[in-house]
Design brief:
Blueprint lengths: L11 H9 L6 E4 L6 H9 L4 E6 L2 H10 L7 E5 L5 H7 L5 E7 L4 H4 L28 H7 L2 H12 L4 H12 L7 H11 L12 H12 L5 H10 L1 E11 L2 H14 L20 E3 L9 H6 L7 E7 L1
Parallel strand pairs: 1-2, 1-4, 2-3, 4-5
Antiparallel strand pairs: 5-7, 6-7
The protein binds S-adenosylmethionine.
């Protein structure tokens, strides 16, 4: 299968409006460079903008670097995890930036490349991989074949919000006892059997299990709130942070992190005295998360679950 390395940037107009504000000239960090769609828009917004793009996928870095070569020294790419944002900027002796964008999750390029093992919709035998950073050791196959039944069930339930998690974990453990589960097709068929779903489904029964494993392999939710705190630390006053999420687990963390950073107590209701240590460092620009328009979803169905939230440093 040939791979067409295309990824339409999600909510391009809304993301740019919330990220740039009036300050179109400046240094921006694209924390999830991908194929560079959003970075290109930022660089086109003014001849004065510069972008540092981060990604933990070396292939994405290479493709985006070629795409954005036309912008010369206004663009630089760094192969790293965005959770290292402070160290990366320190190494470059950059004290603060004008804006930071994070468009979380996988790119269409990753999803559409069968060898990367993110999707079960290919006929080919795709390996159960799902690593965004292919230099990382743990793959989805490692988790599926090595976690205990209860650990697997917890991952599938927690990160996939899959009600049939226990049944799926039980069947995985029974099947891997006969032979290791190595391909996306094997796992997808097994999930279909576990949930006893036949025929025409609206969403493939394995969707939630695959989402769960992807999140676990890439530790996608780990330290997301710390990333928000670090990003705000390196913003200049008036600088903006815009984050696009693709599922409720991520969005909940970002919403809560923005509440905390804007001075709202996030202690559980059962706690009589506030101990969360909130302090007002930002103004939230999006009282409600922004969703893509129906027109955008018609052109780019993968945008349908996207939510954009933005805040501005005081
Ligand atoms: C949705 S895509 C971004 C697409 C990009 N905005 C564009 O328009 O082409 C998300 C990208 O973030 C990267 N990514 C996900 N988690 C990351 C992390 N913790 N650190 C760095 N990059 C990450 C993925 O490898 C992927 O390339």
């Amino acid at each position: 299968m040939t791979v067409n390395p295309v990824h339409l940037p999600v909510m391009p107009v809304e993301a740019l409006a919330n990220l740039l504000g009036d300050d179109k000239a400046g240094l921006f960090v694209d924390a999830t460079l991908g194929l560079g769609g959003h970075s290109e828009l930022i660089l086109q917004a003014s001849s004065q903008t510069r972008v540092i793009g981060l990604d933990r996928d070396a292939e994405a870095i290479a493709l985006a670097t070629t795409r954005l070569a036309q912008f010369g020294e206004r663009f630089a790419a760094v192969h790293c995890d965005y959770r290292q944002i402070k160290t990366i900027l320190e190494q470059r002796k950059i004290e603060s930036v004008t804006g930071i964008l994070a468009d979380l999750g996988v790119s269409s390029f990753q999803f559409d490349t069968p060898e990367r093992g993110f999707s079960f919709r290919f006929d080919a035998e795709s390996p159960l991989d799902m690593r965004m950073d292919r230099s990382q050791q743990t793959t989805a196959a490692n988790l599926v074949n090595e976690l205990s039944e209860s650990e697997l069930a917890d991952v599938i339930y927690e990160f996939g919000e899959e009600r049939a998690a226990r049944r799926i974990a039980r069947l995985i453990v029974a099947e891997r006892g006969k032979a290791p589960i190595k391909t996306t097709t094997q796992l997808a068929n097994l999930v279909v059997r576990a949930v006893h779903q036949k025929g025409h489904w609206r969403i493939h029964p394995a969707t939630k299990t695959f989402q769960a494993l992807r999140i676990a392999v890439n530790r996608e939710l780990d330290d997301l709130d710390q990333f928000v705190a670090d990003a705000i630390d390196v913003l200049k006053p008036g600088g903006r942070l815009a984050i696009i999420t693709f599922h409720s687990l991520e969005d909940r963390i970002i919403k809560q992190a923005f509440r905390f950073q804007s001075g709202h107590c996030v202690c559980p209701p059962s706690q009589p005295v506030c101990q969360c240590g909130t302090a007002k460092r930002v103004t939230v620009l999006t009282r409600k998360a922004i969703s893509p328009t129906a027109e955008e979803i018609a052109v780019n169905p993968r945008a349908r679950s996207a939510k954009l939230r933005a805040c501005q440093k005081l």
